[in-house]
Amino acid sequence: xxxxxxxxxxxxxxxxxxxxxxxxxxxxxxxxxxxxxxxxxxxxxxxxxxxxxxxxxxxxxxxxxxxxxxxxxxxxxxxxxxxxxxxxxxxxxxxxxxxxxxxxxxxxxxxxxxxxxxxxxxxxxxxxxxxxxxxxxxxxxxxxxxxxxxxxxxxxxxxxxxxxxxxxxxxxxxxxxxxxxxxxxxxxxxxxxxxxxxxxxxxxxxxxxxxxxxxxxxxxxxxxxxxxxxxxxxxxxxxxxxxxxxxxxxxxxxxxxxxxxxxxxxxxxxxxxxxxxxxxxxxxxxxxxxxxxxxxxxxxxxxxxxxxxxxxxxxxxxxxxxxxxxxxxxxxxxxxxxxxxxxxxxxxxxxxxxxxxxxxxxxxxxxxxxxxxxxxxxxxxxxxxxxxxxxxxxxxxxxxxxxxxxxxxxxxxxxxxxxxxxxxxxxxxxxxxxxxxxxxxxxxxxxxxxxxxxxxxxxxxxxxxxxxxxxxxxxxxxxxxxxx
Length: 484
Ligand SMILES: [Zn+2]
Fold this sequence. Notes:
Elements (H helix, E strand, L loop, with lengths): L1 H5 L4 H11 L9 H13 L3 E4 L5 E5 L11 E6 L21 E4 L2 E4 L6 H15 L8 E6 L7 H4 L10 E4 L7 E3 L4 E10 L2 E3 L5 E8 L17 H16 L2 E8 L9 E7 L4 H19 L7 E6 L6 E3 L1 H13 L3 E5 L7 E13 L2 E10 L2 H18 L2 E4 L13 H14 L4 E3 L6 H8 L4 E4 L4 E2 L7 E3 H17 L1
Parallel strand pairs: 3-6, 3-7, 7-21, 8-20
Antiparallel strand pairs: 1-2, 2-6, 4-5, 5-23, 9-18, 9-19, 10-15, 11-13, 11-14, 12-13, 12-17, 16-17, 17-18, 22-23
The chain binds zinc ion.
Zinc ion (ZN) binds next to helix 4.
């Protein structure tokens, strides 16, 4: 590790990054890293405190001559996603991340690197340690649990920051300044279903949808990919009456923030018509592939004999209502942003369906940078629930951050970038969540932007961080702090 550090510039940021990388800090296991952050702050003579969630707030007075400047907060999250390749011996709970250099890149040996957001934490601490950066009054906020539903930020005391500006250091694209993010709200919809025995002489089969790409419901919802649950509903809606299918159960999807890749239904069918149904599914698969094309070329619909799991089936009217609901409930892009071309402003993900004894449960996840738009999608789901006999429950949700391309802070950061590197920054917003949404809600009037160095494939063992763009990020951060 020491040899690696010798070869990296600027030393001050890499020193903290490599030290932090040696401390296990998966979401929910941050205690040691949180202690380390506090030790660093105190050893630099800064005032520091922690709340029950492990969020650390550190204050450092202005550099000489900058006492009257507006206060600035630097913010990053200390937790990281733990993912490793199969067969990697790494033990996340005890082992340091094995950081290796690959030319201009840093990566880890078979695991996530944790540059998301270890490099943001390192940069903030390096500013605290620096006697060269001529910053105004400074606050550093290091949160926990970002990767598990923004858990630390949610428990942050509103109004705790005194800063006028907040620089969130949790962005993975150099040359871009992030000025907005989406908020989220979950709906669950449950319907009681009556059951009875399957018709005499019918046999159990499984209709399976597979081969889809899926993806993240924030970043990939506008990629035109298929939703396995929707496709299954399409098949059941169009084929059940003609084939006299009786629905035993259905299931699909997994996580709220993942577009479902697989779904299946167990149905009872006259075995004499098995070949005919297989052909009909084949035709549907052809239509599907023509429709999805290169967005999702592997989409597949198959029919298999099902293991005997009892002969109970849903009452026909209930099955029909469930399938109708799944075929029509909000999924996909609802609205694009009127201010940032190409950005999705509002969307819904039909995330999961499962069958329990006597009930079918559906989970949906709605996103928008606007609270009212998010609520409007949940209302739409509520209306359909009323029509189709479902009960809706809404989650707590978390706020978004509506992008403002006229933001004076974003302009100043971009102007500093242009002065340093000869080109302005591009404005972007994410349809994913950022802590800025929650922090902004708790601090009305706080101006925020987010930026960081280039990294790729975060949350996977392929995660890589650009060394030169980290050096550029450090220069930019220092220059922005001097300019504000
Ligand atoms: Zn992050």
